[in-house]
Amino acid sequence: MESLFEKYMSSDFDQFESGKYVTVKDFVFRPKRYEVWREGNKIKEGKINNKVKSIVRGEEEEYSTNVLIEIEDSEKIGHIVRKSVYDVCVTSVDRVQMLTIPAEKNSVECVGLASCRNGTGPTRRSKEFEKNEPYCCNLFLKDGNLSKVTFSINRPEKLVEFYS
């Protein structure tokens, strides 16, 4: 029987050396479907014909990329804001993570946000996240091509996933 660890490590996604700060370039991702997860349960899914695009707005400090992500028709999904900004990009085992992690705790804070603060460290002094505003965007690649984009949200804690 395959363990969860073995299943995770046998990911179909490209692999990276963890903890390396990287710069992303502008991209446009055209997902065909999406899923919304909360407390381990899929609460919404569907087909979609929109685009997720990034605009790299320049470096403001060391390792800062200041990436703006815009999701067309986000109101159709209803669980994520249209625009979000990320301070840094760092590699993980099977993804590139774009993060905005405040040093000061939010009035409402999920486990994932606290985990990112302990792992990667804060990317700014403070930030109170709005409802449905992500603190993390994960980019998953297959053979160097963007295949999946996910967003981790603090208020309320949930995951929004887009698939090619």
Q: Which helices and strands occur, and which strands form pairs?
A:
Blueprint: H1 4-9, E1 28-29, E2 33-38, E3 41-47, E4 52-56, E5 67-71, H2 74-77, E6 83-86, E7 88-92, E8 95-99, H3 111-119, E9 134-142, E10 145-153, E11 158-163
Antiparallel strand pairs: 1-4, 2-3, 2-11, 4-5, 5-6, 7-8, 8-9, 9-10, 10-11
Task: Describe the structure concisely for a colleague.
The chain has 3 helices and 11 strands; from the N terminus they run H-E-E-E-E-E-H-E-E-E-H-E-E-E. By secondary structure, it is mainly beta. It has one domain.
Largest sheet: 7 strands, antiparallel
How many structural domains can be distinguished in the coordinates? 1
Oligomer: single chain
| C-alpha-based Rg, rounded | 15 Å
Q: Could you estimate the helical fraction of the residues in percent?
A: 10-25%
Describe the protein's architecture and organization.
- With about 160 residues, the protein is mainly beta.
- The chain has one domain.
- About 10% of the residues lie in helices and about 40% in strands.
- The chain contains three helices and eleven strands, in the order αβββββαβββαβββ.
- It has helices spanning about 5-10, 75, 110-120; strands at about 30, 35-40, 40-45, 50-55, 65-70, 85, 90, 95-100, 135-140, 145-155, 160-164.
- The strands form two sheets. The chain has a seven-stranded antiparallel β-sheet with strand order 3-2-11-10-9-8-7, covered by helices on one side.
- A hairpin with a 2-residue loop joins strand 2 (about 35-40) and strand 3.
- The longest helix has 9 residues, at about 110-120.
- It is globular.
- Residues about 1-10 have low confidence and may be disordered.
